[in-house]
Amino acid sequence: MGLSKTIWASPSEFIRTQQPENPVMFFAPMVLQATARRFLEGFPGLVTYAVKSNPDEMVIQNLVAAGIRGFDVASPVEIALIRRLAPGAALHYNNPVRSRAEIGFAVEQGVKSYSVDSRSELEKLIALVPAEGCEIAVRFKLPVAGAAYNFGAKFGATVEGAAALLARVAEAGFVPSLTFHPGTQCTDPAAWDAYIRAAADICGRAGVRARRLNVGGGFPAHRLMGVLPDLQAIFALIGRVTAEAFGEGAPALVCEPGRGLVAESFTLATRIKGIRDGAHVFLNDGCYGAMDELPITGIIDRITVISPEAEPRRGEAADHIVFGPTCDSVDRLPGEVALPGDMAEGDYVLFAGMGAYSTATNTRFNGFGDLSIATVMALKP
Ligand SMILES: *Cc1c(COP(=O)(O)O)cnc(C)c1O
């Protein structure tokens, strides 16, 4: 992935002057820092960043500059990245299944917080990690809808299982905590309500007071034009329900947003390679590139089409089937996408809110995916 060092005023300025043939991610550090401040000021606890959603070094550096002091990491590479870029930051190793070698690396790097969802992996941690001042958070799951897809399908103990694990964590001398993830792009705040009350239930069953409760990521980004997520309402609900469910001695809160922090600070610019017989639109990026997750999480309809001279196309919109550049037939954006009638081959199609799970999962399949990043002052095309 190329890296442009120059700072541009806007995506339009870059496109007008550079006429990029390959897809470009426009990154606005000021938007990222403003979003980080919204979390830091609004969330009633510690805000950490889920590195996997976008591990770009500029992203990490800007989050540190904005005041983020904790990171959710899932692998030795992510641990080493954060140790290098933010040496004093707290590392939460919240991938519930790790090899013994991975645990050894984390201990060596001074990681003091782990999550776990099973007896086998808890016994591994107890055997390999010094308990003194070290937190183990038990990850649990509920059958709750409300997110873009089901995160409980892979990780999380049942409420009964979590109570037994929490008791074992405390007995082994670790700092006992709880954690969950309501599912990514969780637009229904009721999910957090149910999870927080279940956390109090688990503590009651285990007879253990949890030191911290990590309410996960899942904070929604702005993906659909008509649907503006209300983060402040979710923050307020989390604070209120925690106080109600736990009363005196409530655990300290932690959150670990990925998407909610980073999505808004990137806009993806793709180019129209061809409009096949006036019907199907072929872009130079698609589901094997920066739009890898759209088939799972749904379309982002915050789309602007501009000419190579950066003039916005304003023709009446009509639905189109949109394909990516590879020869694989699943390389198609979900559903049909409304695009202006006066668009033309060579135009640029800009997707806002593309910062999460895009640069990180981009592939070079079929020889495409030559994605670069350009820094801009503002994302307004
Ligand atoms: C992926 C992940 C996150 C971030 O999820 P978002 O939906 O991007 O906020 C947070 N915590 C854990 C444990 C994760 O695996």
Structural write-up:
- Strands 1, 2, 11, 12, 13, 15, 17 and 18 form an eight-stranded mixed β-sheet that branches. This protein has an eight-stranded parallel β-sheet with strand order 5-4-3-10-9-8-7-6.
- 30% of the residues lie in helices and 22% in strands.
- It contains eleven helices and 18 strands.
- The chain folds into two domains: 3-27 and 265-376, Lyase, Ornithine Decarboxylase, Chain A, domain 1 (Beta Barrel), CATH 2.40.37; 29-262, Alanine racemase (TIM Barrel, Alpha-Beta Barrel), CATH 3.20.20.
- Strand 4 (70-73), helix 4 and strand 5 form a beta-alpha-beta unit.
- The two termini are 22 Å apart.
- The protein has helices at 11-18, 29-42, 57-66, 76-85, 100-108, 119-128, 159-171, 190-206, 231-246, 259-262, 294-297; strands at 2-8, 24-27, 46-50, 70-73, 90-93, 113-116, 135-139, 175-179, 212-214, 252-255, 266-276, 280-283, 303-306, 317-320, 322-323, 337-340, 348-351, 372-376.
- The mean pLDDT is 96.
- Helix 2 packs across helix 3 (57-66) and helix 8 packs parallel to helix 9 (231-246).
- The protein has 381 residues and is of the alpha/beta class.
- It is elongated and about 70 Å long.
- It binds pyridoxal-5'-phosphate.
- Pyridoxal-5'-phosphate binds next to helix 10.
